[in-house]
Structures are given as structure tokens and as C-alpha cells.
Design goal:
Layout (H helix, E strand, L loop, with lengths): L1 H32 L10 H13 L21 H13 L4 H27 L2 H12 L2 H7 L5 H17 L5 H17 L4 H15 L7 H20 L7 H19 L3 H9 L1 H7 L6 H17 L1 H17 L4 H7 L9 H10 L3 H4 L1
Helix pairs in contact: 1-4, 1-5, 2-3, 4-5, 4-7, 7-8, 7-9, 8-10, 11-12, 11-14, 12-13, 13-14, 15-17
Length: 359
Amino acid sequence: MKRNSGVTKRKLLLAVLLITFLFRFLFVMNSMFHIQRAFATWPDTWEYETVAWNLTNGRGYSLHEHSPYFPTMLVTPSYPYLITAIYAVSGGRNFQLVLLTNLILAVISAGLIFGLTINLTKSEKAAFWSAFLFGTNPNAALYTGQLIAETLYITLILLSFLIVIQSKWARWSKVAIFGVVSGLLLLTKPAGVVPVLFALLYALWKHRDARWLIALPIALMVVFPWLNRNHERFGMWKFSSVTDMTLTIYHAAPVMSDIHDVPLDSAAIMLYGRELYEKVANRYPNPFALDTTGQIARRFIQKNLSKYTRLLLTGLPVVVFMPMSMAEYARFIGRQPGRSPVAQEFLRDISKFRIWSAL
């Protein structure tokens, strides 16, 4: 029975890996034949690739396409460095090889989900369907065909959870690997702190072994060179400007827009002033201005917590149940919709039950 079970598990795993590969390959192939579609998720894709190309050519960690190449900390480093390594190996700006790497990561992620579900449920069918739903998820597939960090980010999250779930005790090697993966996860996206903490709390709860806490200083050692670089360049012991940008543009401004019933840009200007807003809402956002607007955004959200919570509760179900990447999908299939922040305007109208306006 055990041998048959093992054979069934391998067949189901191979089947879901193949399904994931074929489905995601359709998206990757689209971008490979029409390379501009690999940049549909703009400006994130442009930011990652521009930094990588500057690193490849010895221009430093910069978003700027022309001299002088001012440094940035808006884009966290792991994915740009992965692209840089691919460019170095291939000897040029090989977008196609980056997309194929994304495809490999997507297939690995499907395998990790299969392994996670087996460990949690002991059910081969549950493992197959979990991995199948991930492999054929259209939003995740869209990102596989983009020069964007989401695919790597998902792989690292799943790997970190598999390490703590599969372990029966806190072996030093497992703790060290978990620490390194956690550090890389943080260097991929600042939001990686959330899955890292969840995985660590799960490990402490499941194994009742404080040795898992050693993973924290190991993760800190991985991210410290990046923190030190930001301190040397900008005088700030700060991980990234991403959080400030997110709070400034996507959180505080919609609350101001909701209060005064004005468009988002007008709301942001009311909140930060035109001069400061122009420094953060452009192609090369100023990290010092972002630090200031981030502080303003935090204080404003705290003062209007009830309105912010209502907008947040409105937005979360929409994010879960409908694709928020509709504009990206349109660009991916060859259309050219505008780049205005449609999603935030949509959430504002939905929160006020302006259904026709939202449509």
C-alpha cells in the first residue's frame, strides 16, 4: 500500500508540475514574442529591469537611465541582482532568459505547495488540487510573464514555510537555511516581514524549540549590507522607500479623497503640497521626500482611522475576489489603457456605493 501511495504521489506531483509549466508557458511565450508585454505591470517591471541594467554596466544601484545615475532605495535588491546575474551569464540584455527563470520558479512553487499540503493534510488529492489552483491562477501567471519580483517572492515564501513545517525539530542546518531564506525574502519585498514572522511563530508553536529564534540574527546578517548601504547613501537606517510610497499614494491619499470627494491627485496635493507631491509621484521619486510624506501619511491615517478602516475593509474583498490587474492584462494582450490609478478610484466609488461610476 505504501509503495502504491508513493507512486500515486509522484504521478500527481508530475501531473501538476506539467500543468503549471504548460499554463504559465502560454503567458511567458506571449511576452517572449512581444517583449513590450513583459513590462505590462508598469512601472514596477521598468524599475527592476533598469536597476539591473545599470548594475550590469557598472553604473550603480540606480533607477536613472541617463547620467548622473543617482542611487535609489525604492527597489529592493534581490530580484534586480538575479536579473543582473542572468545578464552576466547570457552576455547581454536577455529578457527571454529572465522570463524562463520566472517559469522555472513558478513550477518550483507549485511543487512546494504540493509538499506543504501533503505535510499539513496527508492528502494527495488535496495537495494536487492546491497546486493545480496555484498553477492555473491567472494573476500569478500574468506575473510569471513579467520582469517583476512576485514569482521569486512567492517561491521564497513557500520555501520558508516548507522548511518549518517539514522539520520535526530545530536542527541547526534547518534554522540557518530558514534564516537565509527569510533574509532573501525581506530583500525581495519589504512585505516579506509578514510571512517571515508567521513562519517563525508557527515554528515556535509547533516545535516548542527556542533555537528557531536564531534565524532572526541570521536574517539580519543577510539584510545588513543593504541597510548599511542605505545609511551610507542617504543617512537613513531604512530598509526601503516602498512602504513610504505605498502609504503616501495608495493609503493616505484615498482617505483624503474620500473625505473631500476629490480625485486622487487633488487629494494628494491637499495632503502633501504640490511641490512635495511632485517629488514623490514621478519616475524618479526622491527618497528624502518619501520619508517626509510617509510620516505625514502615517499621522493622517491615525487621525482618520475609522475612515481608513472602512476603505480597507471595502478594498480587501475586491482584491481577493476580482483581478486588480485588469489594466496590466490589457497591456499584456496588446492594448494600451491609461496608467492612471484606476483601482483606487474604483475602491473609492464602491465604498460610497457609486456602482455606475465604478463600472
